[in-house]
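Quick illustration, no need to memorize.
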Amino acid sequence: MSDRVERLRAARSATILAFESSCDETAVAVVRDGREVLANQILSQIDRHAVFGGVVPEIASRMHVEALDPLLDAALNEAGMTLAGIDAVAVTCGPGLVGALLTGVSYAKALAYARDLPLVAVNHIEGHVSANYLAHPELEPPFACLVASGGHSHIVLVERYGEYRLLGQTLDDAAGEAFDKVARVLDIPYPGGPLLDKLAEEGDENRYRFPHPHTPGKYDFSFSGLKTAVINQAHNLRQQGEEIAAADFAASFRRAVVDALVGKSVAAAVEAGATALAAAGGVAANRLLRRELVRRGEQAGLRVFLPPVALCTDNAAMIGSAAFYRLMRGETAALDLNALPSLRMFS
């Protein structure tokens, strides 16, 4: 196996079959050389979980099991190849829901063993960062990146491929969690964050005033207090018999979150000496966030890179991209690889 890995490293080329099953999307992709997507198949479970108002882990795991075989066939068909053309297998090993992760990890390990292929374990958050490599062939480290999703809000400096330095992070709720919780208060159905963003496009962001949280760390985030203030204001308005202008409320809340994310990300990137700023994760699909990152980033002299919306949400192509650079560093996983639901990028 080590000889095969060394040959791939010497050639600086590999076609990777990647799996992602950390939450409620089952995804299989084929990625060449970390930059070219040959296939990207995704099966969303949103409709199945919407009736419960959120992801049910047991249902997610069972659906992953059912979906992996047909998605693998679809991905290979889309790429126009068979398993004989695959050089390595990659899989998300964490963070995420433990049962959901286990389905992908077990499937990838079995396939790697059966085909005698190198196995590469990928951190889901590193995958999100790497989505930018697929969208922007010219992007190379070093650069700063805002990672914002349902469970994560980080500002990282990508110093080299696979090497990261933490510049700031959330101290409590992530931005995506705050969006989802405020969406429930406004009776917006699951998935709340994207629908709140859509509603906010129609609203007046100056109608309601919400606090901008302060944190001990210059580039850290805190959204728990903001979320609580917004929820309390909504309850108070209802108790007073006042009708909430939902679009204005959503827009005002969105503005407060985006100002915090963008302001600190741009400032952290500049102080770190970065010349480029990227975004990653589900919240990177937020319309206002994308507009403000470009506007304020370019004002600060930064080149701004945004992945297309399809690569902001969970997908396996981003895992294949991250895996390529791990493979080029000789970093492969053993067949005792386990799901790591609390896996961190930083100690």
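The chain has eleven helices and ten strands.
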